[in-house]
Design brief:
Elements: H1 11-22, E1 30-39, E2 45-51, H2 54-57, E3 65-70, E4 74-83, E5 86-95, E6 114-116, H3 128-131, E7 133-135, E8 140-145
Parallel strand pairs: 1-8
Antiparallel strand pairs: 1-4, 2-3, 2-5, 5-6, 5-7
Length: 150
Amino acid sequence: MSIKSIPCTLGPVFLAGIALSLFPLSAYAANLIVVVDGLRDANGTVRLELDGSEAAWNDKASAAAKGNVHAAVGSVRYTFSNVSPGTYGLGVYQDEDNSNKLRVNLFGIPKEGYGFSNNPSVMRMPTFQEVQFDVAQQDKTIVVHLKHGI
């Protein structure tokens, strides 16, 4: 049977089905579930940035994804959907005043809770290598512990 013999109404549907079966769009994507704990209060919004490269981590390229969730005392959970397999780094902060930026004092020390994937124990902005983790084809859960002050 040739494609020409398929009725007009089914031809485009048939071709689209073939095209989609050749290119499975999300067959290898996973959900990345992020649990953020250490929230002292329910003020503001928890902001998350998922970076897929060192350049993105250093603000020289776009983030792979960003997310927001209302703050709650204790912990919150956010899911990045359809994350392609790869290496990522995650930065999180509690934007208590909804200013869309992390407030810092005169010495550059954050006034709001902040954290990173792998929870590195450093007193500076961690490198991409210190925060990187891999996402495969399966869903993954990571926990980020918010720090307050230094």
